[in-house]
Amino acid sequence: MPKSGLTYGVDITSRTQLIDGLDSQRVFFDDDAKLHELEPSANPFLTVLLGMKTAKKKASGDLESYVEHRGSYINDPLYYVKASDTTAIAALNANAAEYGGLSVSLTPAGNAISPHPFKKGDVMILVDTVDETKTATIIMSDTDDDDEIKFKLLTSTPGFDIVANAANATKLYHVGRAFAEGSEESEARYEKPVTCWNEIGSFKESYSITDQLAASTQIVYGNEMLKQLSWAQKRLLKDADRMLLYASQRINATNPFAAPGNSPLLNADGEIIRTSISMEQAIRAGEAVGIGGNRLFKMTSATVTPDIFDQNVIDATRYGSNHLCFAGAGFVAALSSMARRNGQYKLEPGDTMYGMKLKKYITPYQDLDIVIHKGMKGRLDNAMFMVDMNQIHLRQLIPMYSKPLVTNRTAKKWEMRWDVGLRVYLPEAHSLWFMV
User: Fold this and answer.
1) Domain boundaries of the chain, sorted by first residue
2) What is the pLDDT of residues 404-414, one digit of tens each?
3) Which end of the chain is more exposed for a tag (fewer CB within 10 A), N or C?
4) pTM of the model
């Protein structure tokens, strides 16, 4: 017989066992209890995490460190010139001199990548943004004292000049490597392990039945207890869903992936309050700690063009592979309006996942699977989280359980408790969209 998912020393397989267990001691609700099926559309982010067996992991403590491999060499070969000591290359000859001061960013006029990911012998192509038929091949010869690139031209008289640090900055593509006969071994390209941290939050929700109500002939005590239990579980799941998606903050670290600082959040008794990172905090920090630049995409619903939207889709999905979108109703309405205005988009019914009906937004570049999140209201009504579900884990320290409480009131009281947090990998794989 399969496990029920409800335990208090032994597997609970009957209603009587559950009522007796709730009255006497802790009752744990494990994966097989399928709590995410209670009200899936009310807490969709958590529903997916609990439904995906691979997305939930056992935590080692309320404060965890882990090693993440963030590539020292970015797989995407496209960059933009941030600066260069020599920009007038239109009439220069190949191999005429060595030029320096070249730095690159991941976006036009973005922050320079430091340290840059290139090595001696790397071959790159400069592309004129105004006329992309004009290109110039360069080879990296060395780095200068400021860790900027020294290079030689392999193309004579390219016919265009380098534009640096501007909206139309010259594009730079890495394409390969070239070495001299008998040269030394190549410089290693490897992934640098980075130590990151996550914390486990403590969630609680009490429920009770007064002695007078328990004695009433209008109710059955066991039925009422189980109703109160179910409502408490739903409230707890909603709280955790919203906290882990957009509300919770690691406040004791400037970088939410860094080790805790010296001034943790304390309660009145001097005890540390652990707060998990949320998806929104991780995404907003992505520009500083990730490799993908700014992961916020802001558009105006009345004026957004297909060109802008398509480019945002390309940029948002450049990293990661298993994206699922959680959107407010206002954002989905804006997508529907854009589909009516532009025949190249379609909003259609999508698949059903863990009891939730998805929407599928078909774009020329990639289809977006969207869950409408009822908890995304107010400032998030016109927002959408695009999350790579392969790059997040729900870290559970203690499974959800109900515990009877001692009280002086003329009532029976219990408390649902759950110690759980979020671990976010590769912040560049996720993004937050706004349609204002």
Assistant:
1) 1-33, 34-70+196-435, 78-186
2) 998 888 999 99
3) N
4) 0.82
